[in-house]
Amino acid sequence: xxxxxxxxxxxxxxxxxxxxxxxxxxxxxxxxxxxxxxxxxxxxxxxxxxxxxxxxxxxxxxxxxxxxxxxxxxxxxxxxxxxxxxxxxxxxxxxxxxxxxxxxxxxxxxxxxxxxxxxxxxxxxxxxxxxxxxxxxxxxxxxxxxxxxxxxxxxxxxxxxxxxxxxxxxxxxxxxxxxxxxxxxxxxxxxxxxxxxxxxxxxxxxxxxxxxxxxxxxxxxxxxxxxxxxxxxxxxxxxxxxxxxxxxxxxxxxxxxxxxxxxxxxxxxxxxxxxxxxxxxx
Length: 282
Description:
Layout: E1 9-13, H1 20-32, E2 37-40, H2 48-51, E3 54-57, E4 60-65, H3 69-72, H4 84-90, E5 96-101, E6 108-109, E7 113-117, H5 119-123, H6 129-140, E8 144-148, E9 163-167, E10 170-174, H7 180-192, E11 196-200, E12 221-223, E13 226-231, H8 236-247, E14 252-257, H9 259-262, H10 268-271, E15 273-275
């Protein structure tokens, strides 16, 4: 499995630049630090990680079915469902197809395991749990899938807003100071999987509505020797920066104001499809 820390090329949806305030700052940051990137064509939304394939090896990409209930169940939102096939064709990418409905934002990965919320089971209710697990392990070429409960306040149900790997044996996890039952269950399952837990700042008090992701710092963008941390102009920004530098002491840490995209329910990992490229792209 290719991990975020091994990736060296960033793809972004071609509709992301319409978020002008965010895009102007983000594009400047990418250019200033010479981060290789390219815009994907034919996208219907800017949450690229969700509809693009998962990279398992340098030349292997697994394409899950992208038809999430939070879009599918609302006719007025169907226009935001991107079809990954023409997007991949435009960059000459061949993929391995899976029958499972899975959003990329619900696949938090290390080299040999992934962490997902249990929403994957309700999304694929036509299959047994064992069938879902077998398909995930087979297609993703991993040893284990660790399932954590959903945050009931999050209808999207993605694990990338809850937990991220520091290394194969250590995870950064939202501290959930005000959601004690959720914290206990999430931490218990991660510990049962023999993972060491490092709590990370998380504050929902800044969220103005259910689609607001302000205060979720764990949804950062990670690439090779680099992390771009979302900031929001609030007091927790400093805490998040200190904690992320402690968790990744050898990694360059950059920050970007992410208020504009946070209003749509996601942040930096959500907009990013970062891969390990075998040759220079652009």
